[in-house]
Each structure stands twice: as C-alpha cells, then as structure tokens.
Amino acid sequence: MRNLLATVSYDGTVYYGFQTQPGGNTVQDAIEHALLQLTGEAIKIHGSGRTDAGVHARAQVFHFHTNSIIPLERWRLALNGRLPEDIRITEIIEVPLEFHARRSAKRKTYRYSINGNRVPDIFVRRYQLHHPGKLDVEAMRQGLEHLVGTYDFTSFASRHSTKTSHVRTILEARLEVEQSELAAGSHEQGVIHLYVTGNGFLQHMVRIIVGTLLQVGEGKRTPQDMKSILAAKDRAAAGPTAESKGLMLWNVEYDFSSPASEQSEWTDTEDHEDDE
Q1: Cβ of 72: how many Cβ atoms within 10 Å?
Q2: Domain extent for 202
Q3: φ, ψ (nearest 5 deg) of residue 110
Q4: CB-based contacts of 257: which residues, under 8 Å, 6+ apart?
C-alpha cells in the first residue's frame, strides 16, 4: 500500500465544489474517475479541505492510498491525460501511510480578487469580482488588521454552520493592489488581492470578510467597526457574502520534518465546513 500526496489546480466555475456530494459534478468526482481509469481501483481521495461551488484552487492538496506500482514520476502525466482541461495535477509525492492531507496541514491561505477598474478584464472575469465604484483601500487594509489573531468568528460564518466552536486563528492578512499598464495614470483602481492565512476556516468565512471590507471601502462602515462585528458573534452584524468566483485556495502548508502524529492542528470535526 502506498500513500500519495497530490497538488491540484482547478477552475471551479462549472463544479459544485471540491468535495463529493449527491448532486455530483465535483472536482473530487472527476479525480476519482481518472484514478479508476488509470489504476482500476475505486480510490477515495481526502482533500485538505473543501471549496464551495464556483471557488477555484491554485494549490489544493489531497492524498490517497493505492496498491498500484505505477512509478511516481508517471502519475502526473497519466492523470492529467484523463482529467478535464480545467483540472490539472501539478505535483505528486509519496508520503508515510499515516500522513493525512487535512489533519497534517499547518496553514492555509486564500486569495480573493476584486477588479476595481471601470471595465473588467474579460479574460479573467471568472476569477475576479468586478467593483467599479471607488474604494478606500487603506481603510480596508486597516479593517483587515483587526481580524488577525484568535477570535470567535461567528459573525463571519454562514448561518448554516453547525460547528460547536467558531474560534479560529487568522495568522496573516494583507491587501495588495495590482496595477496594469492600461490603467496607469488614470482613475482606475487596479485589481485588489486580499490574502488571508489561517489554521482553519469556517464556511463562507473569507467571502463574508470580503463583503464586509467592501462596505468599509465604500465608506458605509469604518475600519474600527470590524472589532464590534467580531464581538457581536452574530452573522447579521457583518456584511454580505461576496461572490464565489473571486475566491481561490492559494496554498496549503505542511511541516514534513515533523512526525505525522505531531502535525495535526485541526480536529476531525472541522473537515466538513473547512472551507469556503
């Protein structure tokens, strides 16, 4: 028996999310079908977390057990030849049998992209929220700073969350503005990228943070309001849930130098609502 750890990129536009569900048409379904075609085994993959319908991934991670003797260097090409063109395996390594893509993860980063130009770039319209109205980016950056740390994020969790605890830790959060040459010297705002790194996330957490920060940028809230929203522990206190298409699972980090028994920071119960 082998335990293989894979990194996959996907455009989530047409999928109902990463994790298998009754409605079908998920990224997991496509990968497991490709594995069946390749190995003849009915393999179940285990992701680092799940992403909702329409959410993308630059580097989602999953592991699976197999009895196949296919050489490690051949897996990537063989699977990509059997996957849809909007799903691509970028790396596969072999790990100890006890290694788990979710429980062994240390940190996870999401990126949300907002196109603040008057006219959106049609070639990336699937991956950016278009917001042509003027935004105070500095106020948004200040508001974001109030969320770094360990807090009860009930106000930024979906009302459908069934978690017994909404306490999570945001380790890092930042805003970056990307200006294109076409927008240089004009009133265009460029593309605003929000990066959030944490040890775990609640359902819709990043998207609700973005929806609330957009209200800060529009002047409807102050940066300091983020503190009172957190303290309220009430979903009604925060802003709307931003569209899924602007969200991308950016990175999942592991400490391969530590024994698998010492790697877990996330509990089993977090699997179903981690993530976006």
Answers
A1: 11
A2: 107-251
A3: -115, 150
A4: none
Helix, strand, coil percent content, the chain, rounded in steps of 5: 25, 30, 45
For residues 86 and 135, membership in a common domain is answered with no
Binding residues for substrate: 110
Does 236 fall in a domain? yes
| pLDDT for 92 | 97
Pair 114, 245 in one domain: yes
Q: Which residues are annotated as a binding site?
A: 110
Instruction: Assess whether 268 carries a catalytic annotation.
Output: no
Same domain, 199 and 77: no
* Residue 179: predicted pLDDT: 81
Which residue in 52, 225, 274, 275 is the catalytic one? 52
Give Cβ neighbours of residue 184 (< 8 Å, ≥ 6 apart). none
- 135 with 204, same domain? yes
Question: pLDDT tens digits, residue range 161-212?
Answer: 767 889 999 999 999 998 865 555 556 889 999 999 999 899 999 999 999 9
- SS3 for 87? strand
